[in-house]
Write a structure and sequence with these properties.
With 256 residues, the protein is of the alpha+beta class. The chain contains 3 helices and 12 strands. The strands form 3 sheets. Strands 6-7-4-10-11 form a 5-stranded antiparallel beta sheet, with no helix packed on it. Strands 1-3-8-5 form a 4-stranded antiparallel beta sheet. A 3-stranded mixed beta sheet has the order 2-12-9, with no helix packed on it. Strand 10 and strand 11 form a beta hairpin. Helix 1 runs antiparallel to helix 3. The protein is globular, with a radius of gyration of 24 Å. The chain starts with a helix and ends with a helix.
Length: 256
């Protein structure tokens, strides 16, 4: 019969393993913008990556709010089969200059709605692609607050902003980091990340798509490495527990 200390050891071990998995899981379930960075002043194309977190419902709508404190004059969505996108504009309190012209309104929100019978099912994710620009030169990041709606009526609000020196919030808003421009095209903005971003007539067709793809691949590899690391920790903890229990059994058998 297993001794009380042995049972306690097993319980503590399993609890520790479960906590490691629980802590690792949420890091991969956030709504994010990919790639996570772009050059100031340029045009780029990004994907809003939406994982389905609900085991009993599917995602049927995504709303992304664009920052009007740093308005974006050119915003275009890429067609996505099974989804309908709508763009809402807002009047700006103060016009912005884009290529020498006054721009009095900017996109405030993009909404993607699933067609009948379409959804992001449990265990799946969907990417919603948008071209943006010109990106501001007086900011180091753009925050895109998002709402994710499930077919059971649940709405998850990805709107919390991270604060320096504080833990990441439970429902962080997607953030696009902005870096200093390293190159410029003839319009004084960085080259477009993809041909679709250049289609608005301001970007160029010779963008650095390869660089962005490489960044996305690197991020995916990092996520995979973290998953494998967590699995290794869990396996190691369970293996240690099994060894301890086996040793206790042998010692108990020798004493009898």
């Amino acid at each position: 019969m297993r001794s009380l200390p042995a049972r306690r050891t097993a319980a503590v071990t399993l609890a520790a393993a479960a906590s490691v998995v629980a802590l690792a899981g949420p890091a991969f379930a956030h709504v994010t913008v990919n790639p996570g960075s772009a050059e100031q002043g340029g045009y780029t194309a990004v994907d809003f990556r939406v994982p389905n977190e609900n085991d009993a419902a599917g995602t049927v709508k995504l709303e992304v709010n664009l920052p009007l404190d740093h308005p974006l004059a050119s915003v275009r969505t890429q067609p996505l089969p099974g989804w309908t996108s709508t763009v809402e504009k807002a009047k700006l309190d103060k016009p912005i200059k884009v290529h020498g012209n006054d721009v009095n309104e900017a996109v405030a929100k993009i909404t993607w709605t699933a067609d009948a019978g379409v959804k992001v099912a449990p265990g799946q994710f969907q990417e919603f692609r948008v071209s943006l620009g010109p990106l501001p030169t007086d900011a180091d990041s753009l925050v895109f607050k998002a709402l994710q709606t499930y077919d059971n009526g649940d709405v998850v609000r990805w709107i919390d902003e991270a604060k320096d020196g504080q833990p990441e919030p439970a429902k962080p808003a997607p953030v696009l980091k902005l870096t200093k421009a390293t190159s410029a095209d003839g319009h004084g903005v960085t080259a477009s990340a993809t041909p679709s971003a250049a289609a608005d007539g301001h970007g160029t067709g010779h963008g650095d798509a390869a660089k962005n793809d490489a960044a996305s691949d690197a991020k995916a590899s990092d996520s995979t490495a973290r998953v494998l690391g967590v699995v290794g920790i869990v396996v190691g903890v369970i293996g240690t527990a099994v060894g301890v229990l086996g040793l206790r059994r042998r010692n108990g058998g020798s004493a009898s």
